[in-house]
Amino acid sequence: xxxxxxxxxxxxxxxxxxxxxxxxxxxxxxxxxxxxxxxxxxxxxxxxxxxxxxxxxxxxxxxxxxxxxxxxxxxxxxxxxxxxxxxxxx
Length: 90
Known about the structure:
38% of the residues lie in helices and 24% in strands. With 90 residues, it is of the alpha+beta class. It has a four-stranded mixed sheet with strand order 2-1-3-4. The longest helix has 16 residues, at 13-28.
């Protein structure tokens, strides 16, 4: 199973634009766990995950972790997952 942590904040325009992409991703991949973390409300998780820019997505399959920063579309996210974790239909 793919787990995604989305680090963002309300004042970030690309973060707000990515909300539609995340909603679509959740519909396409209901088995993926997507957690939204507001950097202004959760400084501990922000520091622990070394978040330097938003939006940042951190992906994990339980064995390895990868990240993308900046605005990305659903297809780019699926391609990223397929490249680093295998079949994105899991």
